[in-house]
Amino acid sequence: MNIDINDILAELDRDTTVVDELGISLSSDGGNTTKFNSSENYQEKDGMQRDVGNKEARALVNRQPQRQHFSATRDFEELMRVWRNERCAPELLPYPQLLIGRMMKRIQSQMETIENISMGFLEDTLNASTYSSNNGRPSAENEDDIYGNSNIDNNNNNNNKLPLLCMEAEIERVKFVIRSLLRCRLHKIDRFSLYLRQVMDASEVEYDILLSDDEKLYHERHFNITLKLFNNSILKNLPVELQTIDDTEGSVSMIDFPDWKKFVFVYVKEVDIDQLGLEGTSELGLTKNEFGKHCYTVTIDDLDEEVEMSLGGIYVMRYDSVRQLLVDSKVQLI
Amino acid sequence: MYGDLANKLILEAKRSKQLNSRSKDASKLSMYHEELIRNILKEISQLKRNTNYLREQQEMGNMDSRVAKCQYFVTLLCMERNKRCLLAYQKFRNDVLDSLAWENNGMDLLHDNVGITQDNSDLSPQEQEYLKEYSQLITEMKGGILSDIDISGSLDPPSDVFIDVRVLKDAGEIQTEYGVFNLIKDSQFFVRQSDIERLIQQGYVQKI
Amino acid sequence: MSLPPHLQETFSPDEIQFIVENENIKIFPRITTRQTVRNYRNLSGNGDTNKTRWKLITSDENNLNNMVAMQTTEVALWVALLLKQQNKCSIIAPSWLTVKELSNKIRYEESYHDRFSPMPWDWLVLSNILFKKAADDFNDPIHELRTKIQDLREIRQLKVMKGLEQLNESHLQLDNLSLMEINELRPFIADIMDKLREVHASANANETQSQSQDINMSI
């Protein structure tokens, strides 16, 4: 798991024009489209970029043409990919700071839109004053006006409310994915609590990539209260030499770390060979095998075996064999 | 034999774990085995005294050094094993406590009486304190920039966010979290499922 | 635990369905949302509720804002299901979801014992969703389709079971297996292969050990 920080930082410099920060308005998202298209190492960089705060980038991004639709679609696809990878990977993956930031922005802005539209319905409703059950609650905290009275048999407004239904349902979907992603991450942070403390001590940079600020706080505080419980109920009653919680000298190490060799299911992403040309394909590490299929070659360390993974294929592989391909976004865990 | 008590504790943890994993209901902890734990701790102290004795004897040259070393080593292993079992037991209980805290949205389980299945007297005082602190932590995690997400919310994917319901009995105006419904028998509504969930359970309305 | 145990090993069936619901599908709208230039105004939030426009944050809303009744268009499956629920569209079943096509697939499965027929990665989930929520949109009788899908599933399951003999500590290739099939097999296959890996590793460790002992003795 060698992440060369310098390489990434260098790449970041080149990419600053597409850095999107939490503070940037939605309309600026179009800047990311180029980045997605070039199928670069999005995931890892996303984790890295948070330290590259820069107003310059913000100014540049704001000048990007507005291509929000495309970008929203790509971002959601990316979110689904990140979620599925996190759920399947044995280790904690880098926190997708920028992606989450953009998604949160969209959710907020969408909630405002919904509120505004609902407000319109409410006014109509009150003016017509045919509906009794919507009485008087301000729409700001009251979203029921979009359906409160949509008696399905006779409601002309139903067609107009349809987009609102969709938009509300959609927001719930996005929230669910983010929630599930974050909860999965918290689970891993708990499970590898001691291991992550080692990571923190060894390299603060790497620790920064892995965890968001909220997650760091959670990690620290949950560790403290857990340690307190272990100390008070067990450890302090033991002989001094047995009182540690992170002893690695005994017959069994007390530090649980990710099973790097765990078998995972991977899908090898398709690549547009014609578009890339010969040079592009070899740059990606693709070769043609004896059946004329393009594939990546990975090594299974313990067995001294090489395995060809052809594009579009599904494999069960040891995690450490495909980890680099995952970081490079060439495969996806399924 | 040394380690027997610890083994009992582990079997107990295993049994509760199976019970918990079999039902998809709320997590639940059985009684904290305080006495068993106290006895295991006693056993460890006894083992500790044995190691001290063995070391003294060895230093005084009273014993065959190979036999003494072996005895000493085995005693250490027993102590370590006991510690491992104690921690594993507590770790298992911690996991369930964590689940409990999440299932209840980080609410203060010990003081708010919110339809909890967990009997507090089954928890040790330290565990009660832990549960309170962890629930507090969850509550704080829910705030901040991610507050729109409600991270302690449901982990089931949203399906049928809106549903059609028919009112089965007159119930007058019902106030839900999101608004007011005038429930007249046989009328139909198209509503957010989460708003009406409780009314469905209570038999006032029916999903069509 | 912040993630319930049943979600730690694999996805739940509901989550698999959720993933599939993000795919696009063709529909026949029963409503028209396209606006002519003449009556076009951007009305969202302006108080005029006659023409609310779609604005989505996970996919392109263009198709939704340009629906013309009975003209095919393509939307995300979850949107299609919502429109269907409101009686605003019928869903066009994918071309492989006919009795004839499925029979072909079954023949394929029966003639090749060492491979799976190329089915879409979401065939099992998608067909089940459509059977449940858009049963009236099929041309073929639904019970026949159900039977075919079930047959196909069973033939493929049988092949998977036979293939399990080949589980090893190295790797496995499972082309054309669908998401649902993978998800059901995941805990089992991953567990077995992890165990085989451990056995292999410890057997190897013993070998190295006994070799080094041999060397010691010979010295």
From TrEMBL, chain A:
Residues 132-152 are annotated as: Disordered. Its main location: nucleus. Keywords: DNA replication, Nucleus. It comes from the Eukaryota. The keyword ATP-binding does not apply. Residues 258-334 form the DNA replication complex GINS protein SLD5 C-terminal domain. GO terms for biological process: DNA-templated DNA replication; double-strand break repair via break-induced replication. GO terms for cellular component: CMG complex; GINS complex; nuclear replication fork. Pfam families: Sld5, SLD5_C. Residues 153-233 form the GINS subunit domain. It is found in: Nucleus. The keyword Nucleus applies. Belongs to the GINS4/SLD5 family. This is DNA replication complex GINS protein SLD5.
TrEMBL record, chain B:
CDD domains: GINS_A_psf1, GINS_B_Psf1. GO terms for biological process: DNA strand elongation involved in mitotic DNA replication; double-strand break repair via break-induced replication; mitotic DNA replication initiation. It is found in: Nucleus. Residues 160-207 form the DNA replication complex GINS protein PSF1 C-terminal domain. Pfam families: PSF1_C, Sld5. Keywords: DNA replication, Nucleus. One of its GO terms (cellular component) is GINS complex. Residues 54-144 form the GINS subunit domain. Component of the GINS complex. Belongs to the GINS1/PSF1 family. Required for correct functioning of the GINS complex, a complex that plays an essential role in the initiation of DNA replication, and progression of DNA replication forks. GINS complex seems to bind preferentially to single-stranded DNA. This is DNA replication complex GINS protein PSF1. It comes from Tetrapisispora phaffii (strain ATCC 24235 / CBS 4417 / NBRC 1672 / NRRL Y-8282 / UCD 70-5). The lineage of its organism: Eukaryota, Fungi, Dikarya, Ascomycota, Saccharomycotina.
TrEMBL record, chain C:
Residues 63-92 form the DNA replication complex GINS protein PSF2 N-terminal domain. It is found in: Nucleus. One of its GO terms (cellular component) is CMG complex. Residues 96-199 form the GINS subunit domain. One of its GO terms (biological process) is nuclear DNA replication. It comes from the Eukaryota. Pfam families: PSF2_N, Sld5. InterPro entries: GINS_A, GINS_bundle-like_dom_sf, GINS_Psf2, PSF2_N. Its main location: nucleus. Keywords: DNA replication, Nucleus. PANTHER family: DNA REPLICATION COMPLEX GINS PROTEIN PSF2. Component of the GINS complex. Belongs to the GINS2/PSF2 family. This is DNA replication complex GINS protein PSF2. It comes from Tetrapisispora phaffii (strain ATCC 24235 / CBS 4417 / NBRC 1672 / NRRL Y-8282 / UCD 70-5).
